[in-house]
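Board notes (copied after class):
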Amino acid sequence: MVGVKLAEVIDVLDAAYPPTLAHSWDSVGLVCGDPDDVVDSVTVAVDATAEVAATVGPRGLLLAHHPLLLRGVDTVAASTPKGALIHRLIRAGAALFTAHTNADSANPGVSDALAEVLGLTVEAVLDPAAGQDTDKWVVFVPADEAEAVRSAMFAAGAGDTGTVGSVEPVSEDRVEVVAPARLRAHVLAALRAAHPYEEPAFDVIPLAVLPAGVGVGRIGTLAEPLRFADFVARAAAVLPQTTWGVRAAGDADAPVTRVAVCGGAGDSLLGAAAAAGVDAYLTADLRHHPADEHRRASGVALVDVAHWASEYPWCAQAASLLRTHFGAALPVEVCDLRTDPWNIELSKGMS
């Protein structure tokens, strides 16, 4: 039987690409569609364009990397280009879901997919994201009230540490939970409301913020060193062809073993790449002045590819995730339409 509830697909995507990893300015998740509906297929693409939407079947899901609706949206009227796309999907009983900066930072995510096609073994995150500020709550409560207090704190956003132990000789249990620091007021209110004592005994211990193994960009190594020019040629061969092509700056004969990559626009991470002990940095949308300043100060060679091409490998990663989880119950396809906005290339002698 073909077809899976959209809510089940969303659960899998949110687990792989947690919405909490998205940047504050971003818009990720379900754009249109009913979580209670059944979807018969999934189409994965970098961009939700009209041409891509036309490939989505009835009761299909379009999983896009880039948000369709992000800044200054105050209408989805069918008379507007984006509104027309949404109306087209809705009329077909189809849905649209976005995984953007959360997919950039997830492990594995966009840059892991890029590193894989380039033949890199990922060793580290280029710009690690710290884990969230977290508190450990230690509460002493009579044994017969322990479960009620734990349940109340869980409802307020706390999570279990797996620790509940008897404390003698006062016949109390020691209940330990963890919760995001931003929820302190909610957890405290829940604790006081559920605890049988007017003044319960408890400790709140801020935990050290540790790297979470997620973040933007990756650092990896090649199985064998390559000349820089040969590594650039490899990038051109394994990434989809675009008008933008592949540009590079560096010594063509320099050996390359350790490489930093960032899918999507990455000139904000030039400093991180320069400090990462790599031989080269491959990303997209490098601008003239940041690239020039980097080359003056750093020996790290640069490879600049098209934004769409750098993120396209993620589509296969996301498709594989869903195929592995749902198997034959949910056909998944990667849209091969090139949605890079640049489509004309001219140089001297060409017309």
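Comment from the instructor: The longest strand covers residues 211-227. Residues 265 and 285 are 5 Å apart (CA to CA).
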